[in-house]
Amino acid sequence: MLKSYFNKKLIEAGCDEAGRGCLAGPVYASAVILPINYKNKWLNDSKKLSDKDRYELRPEIEQNAISWAIGVVDHKEIDKINILNASFLAMHRAIDQLMSVPESLLIDGNRFKTYKNIPHNCIIKGDGKYLSIAAASILAKTYRDDFMKKMAIKHPEYNWDNNMGYPTKKHREAIKTHGVTPIHRLTFQLLPKQLELSL
Asked: pTM for the full model?
């Protein structure tokens, strides 16, 4: 069972992102404030759950959370500010939208850019340790997947409904054959060096 809180005396928001390592599409982040006594034995790091489980848990999280929100940074912004800063910005945008102001932020990972004056704790593999971060990882992942599935209808040759924009063999073969789409991240290495495109 994951932990319910880091500091019981504070209103905590768990934060996580999805899509950082993708070659196409935006990076999504979520911030989630759960009740202090919330328990859910199924809630875990989104990467350890099946697609079906993630989508079943999403309404459960949304209905039980005190507040939750999604932040998005698109591929153009990613190319301008780099993926690390884009991940921080997506989390900031999610926190901006919370209906309750958190007193502490639990961040999945080892780095974060301070948000306003709210103290934060970076927790490596936090999505497998704290319920609020796990909840944020599930929301960020499923909302991003929804976006990539819509984009897959426009660009079926890239297999985005299966790879979600990550650098799979099929995705890279499609880039080599068809070139880039309007949502590819042009500052990323889209192909191995020996197959690089002339953009």
From this structure: 0.94
